[in-house]
Amino acid sequence: MSDKSFALPSSIAVIPGTEAAQAAYPYYTQFVPEDDQKFWFYNSMHFPEPMHHFDMITAEAAYVAMGAFNTRVHCLPTAKGVDHRIINGRVYIGGVVVTDPDEIAERVAEFQQRAGHYYENWESLYEQWKGKMKALIAEAQALPSPSLPDYEPLETITEGDAVPASHDLLKIYQQQIEGYHRMWHHHFEFLLLGYGAYMTFFGFCKKAFPEISDQAISRMVAGMEAEIFRPDEEVKRLARRAVELGVDHHFTDDMSIDEVLADLDKVSAQGKVWLADLEESRNPWFNVSSGDGFYHYHRSWNDDLSLPFAALPGYIAKVKAGENIERPTAQLIEEREQLVADYRELLDTDEDRATYDQLIELAHRVFPYVEGHKFYCEHWYTNLFFNKIREFGRLLLAHGFFGPDGVEEDVFNLTQYELESAIIDLMLAWGVGAGPRGPAYWPAIIAERKAAIAEWAKHPTPPALGNVPEAIDDPAINMLWGITRENLDSWLDDGTENPNELKGFAACSGVVEGTARVVKSVSEIGRIQQGDILVCQVTNPTWSPLFQKISAAVSDIGGSMSHMAIVAREYNLPAVVGTGLATVKIRDGARIRVDGGKGTVSILEDA
Predict the structure, then answer these.
(1) What is the mean pLDDT of residues 275-289?
(2) Thinking of the domain 491-605, which architecture would CATH place it in?
């Protein structure tokens, strides 16, 4: 262990007044004294806001699947799963590493055999995977809405089924939970293998070219086509169509979306054509959430059109001015091929060149999955899942479970286990013919938890807890989350070395000076003005339509292969990720300089 340390988990107090809400999270997610012996970091990449109690299933199901695939299915040689804990609504994680040489050797043999099967058959297996995901989505869509009739229809008796509707409530709910867990198993079937292929190439390059930068290696796999970029491409298509059809004047920064849709439907044939184009884009491509798929209230574009419509005026203006609004994919591919060729010439032996060719070819084949899977899993399926849970919210609301002032969204203040118990309470009451206990039990608890979520959001969150390890060898934690020994040391720095400079990963090169717009939740992205530098805990591919407005981006967390870093490179947007505390140290409105080549952010003038 290092002599440097963040606060120990046992020293983090539950914020006064929120103790009951903290205790309501499952027991296996609570910190215990033994956790002081381990290093933890705040997973603000996936969970940048306090977690509602039901939403914790997004962490649980993900880590159940990730652990099983790392540890038991693919058998990654040095990294198993990750533990997760929650304190004051914030999710912390810690990796489980393999250090015993004999166990590593055993796992290497298993991994090579298993990963080899996927790498050899990647394209056909990926097509099968898409089929599995689409079938899972269709299965979830086909689940009926839960309902309870006053009396069973006569057919229940005459058709010989004789299972009353109350049983269907339990069946539908359990199928929803099972389907969500299954989705995460599909999610991890390929993901770590995609990272693994890139990491192997990365390791080869670091050994062969000791001076090479992480960014140069990552640019060798830029210029990808992946489904997660398609929603933004559809918004651009709709902008072009609006100009072609002569209906572009309807789209302004202060528009009412409902009024625009109504006007287009009645004013002209061209308006109706544009609306037909919109419907074509919406299914399936607007099944993406405004967040990253881990919070029930990050609604999909289909549920709330405000994010894609906010991008239309800017895209339309650029189309009319004759500007190119496409991702610079061709330029990225040309640069990628030149880099690959230039570094290949530096290799001395035919053997090294053959290995290099094999590794980069594999990385190009598998890497699009690293972003593409998100469309099907974190977005399309997860949004559908939350909307199906809302149906239970409506049913419980109708039966008084949330009180006279309740709303269907109150269902997300119950844990997944409490929701099942509330459903059984309703089943009992319906069958017994008496009132359920829930209406007297849940409203006060829900009010308490809502207050706790609001309170937790006001307090700063330590980026890490526990003793800093001498080395952090898990390449996924390095590249995805940006957790390295060097970065942790800079997070621990008290600021005396240079209080006006932050260091992180050089995600995409370019030097930009401008106004910092500090955005701490999805609800704040409307504050972004043209030319601002986005400063956030993390961003995700569905914020891509906003990239036309911003001049650079800075994040608290993320490594060279984080989603934010990948997206920044694909849009050629200067970016620094993994700074640790940018959203704390940089004030909204400050003037800052971002150097995406060096990985530094300088505060030039405080707000």
Answers:
(1) 97
(2) 3-Layer(bba) Sandwich (3.50)
Cβ-in-10-Å burial (0-12, 13-18, 19+) of 33 comes to: exposed
- Candidates 59, 55, 102, 54; CA nearest to 77 is 102
Measured between its terminal Cα atoms, the distance across the chain in Å is: 39
31 close to 275: Cβ distance less than 8 angstroms: no
Q: The whole model's pTM is what? A: 0.94
- Name the token pair of 534: 């986005």
**Burial status of residue 263 (CB atoms within 10 A of its CB: 0-12, 13-18, 19 or more):** middle
- Listing DSSP states for 406-462 in one string gives --GGGGGGS-HHHHHHHHHHHHHHHHHTS--SHHHHHHHHHHHHHHHHHHHTTS---
Say if residue 231 is preceded by a cis peptide, omega within 30 of 0: no
The answer to whether 499 and 570 are in contact (CB under 8 A) is: no
Q: How confident is the model at residue 1 (pLDDT cuts 50, 70, 90)?
A: very low
Q: Give the domain ranges of the chain.
A: 119-206+363-456, 491-605
- Residue whose pair of structure tokens reads 């390791």 in the numeric block: 203
* Percent of the chain clearing pLDDT 70 (strictly above): 99
User: Is the pLDDT score of 583 beyond 90?
Assistant: yes
Distance (Å, whole) CA 462 – CA 359: 38
With H, G, I as helix, E, B as strand and everything else as coil, classify residue 472: coil
Strand partners, 518: 535
Q: What is the mean pLDDT of residues 149-163?
A: 87
